[in-house]
């Protein structure tokens, strides 16, 4: 077992990814730990109070776990571009009697300060960061509190920046991953690099322990990543249909629906690149959507919620990695067992 996981009571080098917006429940995190892995609570899009409640729920079960936070790294957008895209979406909003906001927060810090203070006052075993790299003093304070700090990176250059900031380990995310890319430069194209190649590059560039993620859905994917130099792997999409996942019913169904035959990288839903099942919304708006996060996230939020409530998969952000067909309806423990079967 890698020294990265030493002392946590982790038997298998498989981590459950933090999936913001609902799927990552305390139950999913606890089930992953009881299956021998380690799960992350998703702190993104939550208040500090809500996150604290989930932390307490997991701690009550006496299992190791981590917490993930979004780091403020806005993608600027002009009022004109925002307004143009809002008008483009009016036809979709009219289906649900919605009036999309004419203006939205062009930036927000996702309750950053409150959540950092929570994690300093109430340390957890692991904390990971995505979208940006925190200031060195934040990383140092968490490490002094006994927390292992991890940074999500998508290139060797990003890995070097994270290493210079003082993190303990790196989560290396390939573009095959579902949901938002962790890229530090979301306004630029994302290079298509296989996870094994990227893992080897990052390990060579920094020497830090690495967790490989992005498209891992089979036992072979797990062993390939470990052979490439990863200390552990992280899976997300593979867990979306599990009993403990709180992904919406339409989302779970779409992952197995033959009508959804591919995934695409798109910024149409949030203004930041993310991988999702190809649907009407991605087909129609991917080329029209400007870069602009979190402004576009706020713009489309009500529309996505209404579509989800109605089961309208044409308009839902169906986050999914390239291995989505391997996601199964079963307990988390069975998924972890299957992924670990060749270790």
Automatic annotation (TrEMBL):
Alphabetical list of Pfam families matching this protein: NMO
InterPro entries given in the database record: Aldolase_TIM (IPR013785), NMO (IPR004136)
Reactions mediated catalytically: 3 propionate 3-nitronate + 3 O2 + H2O = 3 3-oxopropanoate + 2 nitrate + nitrite + H2O2 + 3 H(+)
Sequence intervals crossing the membrane: none
The keyword Flavoprotein is assigned to this record: yes
Cofactors named for this entry: FMN
Keyword hit for Amino-acid biosynthesis: no
Sorted UniProt keywords: Detoxification, Dioxygenase, Flavoprotein, FMN, Monooxygenase, Oxidoreductase
GO MF annotation list: dioxygenase activity
Homology family: Belongs to the nitronate monooxygenase family. NMO class I subfamily.
Protein name as annotated: Propionate 3-nitronate monooxygenase
Protein species of origin: Streptomyces varsoviensis
């Amino acid at each position: 077992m890698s020294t990265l996981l030493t002392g946590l009571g982790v038997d298998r080098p498989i981590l459950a990814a933090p999936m913001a917006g609902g799927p990552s429940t305390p139950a999913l995190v606890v089930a992953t730990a009881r299956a021998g892995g380690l799960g992350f609570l998703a702190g993104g899009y939550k208040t500090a109070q809500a996150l604290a409640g989930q932390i307490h729920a997991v701690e009550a079960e006496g299992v190791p776990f981590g917490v993930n936070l979004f780091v403020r790294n806005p993608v600027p957008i002009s009022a004109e571009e925002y307004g143009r895209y809002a008008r483009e979406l009016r036809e979709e909003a009219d289906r649900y009697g919605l009036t999309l906001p004419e203006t939205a927060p062009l930036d927000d810090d996702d309750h950053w300060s409150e959540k950092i203070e929570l994690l300093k006052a109430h340390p957890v075993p692991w904390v990971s960061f995505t979208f940006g790299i925190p200031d060195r003093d934040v990383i140092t304070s968490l490490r002094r509190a006994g927390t292992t700090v991890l940074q999500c990176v998508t290139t060797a250059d990003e890995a070097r920046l994270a290493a210079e900031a003082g993190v303990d380990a790196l989560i290396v995310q390939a573009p095959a991953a579902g949901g938002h890319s962790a890229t530090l430069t979301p306004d630029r194209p994302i290079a298509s690099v296989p996870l094994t190649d990227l893992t080897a590059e990052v390990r060579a560039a920094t020497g830090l322990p690495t967790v490989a993620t992005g498209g891992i859905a089979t036992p072979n994917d797990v062993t390939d990543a470990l052979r490439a130099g990863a200390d552990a792997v992280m899976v997300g999409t593979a867990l979306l249909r599990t009993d403990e996942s709180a992904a919406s019913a339409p989302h779970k169904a779409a992952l197995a629906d033959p009508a959804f035959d591919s995934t695409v990288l798109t910024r149409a839903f949030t203004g930041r690149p993310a991988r999702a099942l190809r649907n009407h919304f991605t087909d129609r708006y991917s080329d029209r959507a400007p870069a602009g996060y979190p402004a576009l996230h706020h713009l489309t939020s009500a529309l996505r919620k209404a579509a989800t409530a109605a089961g309208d998969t044409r308009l839902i952000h169906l986050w999914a990695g390239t291995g989505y067909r391997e996601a199964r309806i079963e307990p988390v423990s069975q998924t972890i067992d299957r992924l670990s079967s060749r270790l």
